[in-house]
Specification:
The chain is an alpha+beta fold. Helices cover about 30% and strands about 30% of the residues. Strand 4 and strand 5 form a beta hairpin. The N and C termini lie far apart (about 65 Å).
Length: about 375
């Protein structure tokens, strides 16, 4: 192995330190700029958080790193720091209203030790600022969200006796995500602590006295055979009722989708004449990418799904295109009898077809538009 010259190694180390100093300077400028904006506007910045930590026994449960600014570098599990909502990467702006942005590491430690309890930290949250992620990650924008109490031990399958407060968000994918705090609602990137899809779950209100779990008012459970039960509780009767409504609705939507997928799977193994009440059927010429290949296939349209067969006498379909959310364009310059089916998401497949006549083209275009539109209305 070739030895790296000492001069090169030294240059790399100097560059690394220079970049670290530059990043620290940028963080300080960013924090001070946000503070100035807050003072002028009179409104808190969405990246600023005030966190109170009450030490019950032992340590607070967090570690700091660096100087000017000091950054939260680690949070111990099952400690006051974890339950407070403090996050790794938070820049400490003040401790009990004492500005520590320009203080050294040792000075910050002394201030924290001298101030006692509770410890009030004002922090600037860097998660999502240094590496932002778009809102559609993890299911997109929430349909309904809020704080709920969750009985610990769900992930391990061994319920504990401790209720923890978590931010829950039911999203457009009908999946229930939960986070340590609600900073996700302020567009600040956060990874969910966990997620579950309520398909085939029994969702019901629970009588607290007969549940066999640690007492908590306004409780409801999500139960399914063979998997751990998710025990939740709201802060009020009204909130519990609303959560039950949206979760049951999400479960019903998932059940509809699951039923539809099963029906589509069954249709694939049927002969073309065995599909009941098709929306349209007949031969189509499927155009390959960039108009280089053409293949004549027998097709059956049903519930916005286009099933492909080798010919009319085939015993089963060799493929299916699910066209929900697609739109039909009837004009293609290369072929007056051709049309295309375009997805809303450009990453999905684009379909080109050609018919034997203009009349046949109109028949297929009308049937496709009606089938897709009818499915969207039902959904």
């Amino acid at each position: 192995m070739q030895k790296v010259p000492e001069s090169t190694t030294g240059e790399h180390e100097t560059l690394r330190r220079s970049l670290e100093d530059l990043l620290k300077l940028m963080l300080i400028v960013w924090c001070k700029e946000n503070n100035a904006i807050k003072l002028v506007s009179g409104k808190p910045n969405e990246t600023d958080k005030t966190i109170k930590i009450q030490r019950q026994s032992g340590e607070f449960g967090f570690r700091i790193h660096g100087s000017r600014p000091v950054v939260i570098s680690a949070i111990e599990p099952d400690t006051p720091a974890e339950s407070s909502g403090l996050e790794v990467g938070d820049i400490v702006l003040s401790i009990n209203d004492i500005n520590v942005l320009d203080r050294s590491h040792s000075e910050v430690v002394k201030i924290a030790q001298a101030e006692g309890e509770p410890l009030k930290l004002e922090v600037a949250r860097t998660a999502g600022v240094l590496s932002p992620i778009s809102a559609d990650v993890h299911g997109g924008e929430p349909l309904y969200s809020g704080y709920l109490w969750k009985l610990g031990g769900y992930a391990s399958g061994t319920p504990s006796n401790k209720w923890v407060r978590r931010w829950f968000a039911l999203k457009a994918d009908n999946c229930l995500y939960y986070y340590k705090t609600d900073s996700v609602s302020n567009k600040i990137d956060k990874q969910p602590v966990g997620a579950m899809m309520p398909l085939n779950y029994e969702i019901q209100k629970v009588d607290d006295e007969s549940s066999g779990c640690p007492s908590r008012a306004f409780r409801f459970d999500l139960k399914r055979s063979g998997v751990p039960t998710l025990h939740l509780a709201a802060d009020s009767e009204q909130a519990a009722i609303r959560w039950l409504e949206v979760l049951i609705q999400a479960a019903e939507k998932l059940q509809m989708a699951d039923t539809w997928l099963e029906r589509t799977r069954r249709n694939l193994i049927l002969a073309p004449n065995a599909l009941q009440k098709p929306d349209c059927f007949g031969y189509l010429v499927k155009v390959g990418d960039e108009w280089r290949s053409w293949s004549r296939r027998y097709c059956v349209l049903k519930d916005a799904c286009l099933y492909f067969y080798q010919d009319v006498n085939a015993k089963n379909a060799f493929g299916v295109a699910c066209l929900h959310g697609y739109r039909v364009l009837s004009s293609i310059e290369e072929d007056k009898n051709a049309f295309e089916i375009v997805p809303a998401d450009p990453s999905q497949k684009h379909f080109y077809f050609s018919t034997e006549s203009d009349m046949d083209k109109k028949r297929w275009v009308t049937a496709l538009e009606n089938s897709i539109h009818r499915w969207l209305k039902v959904d």
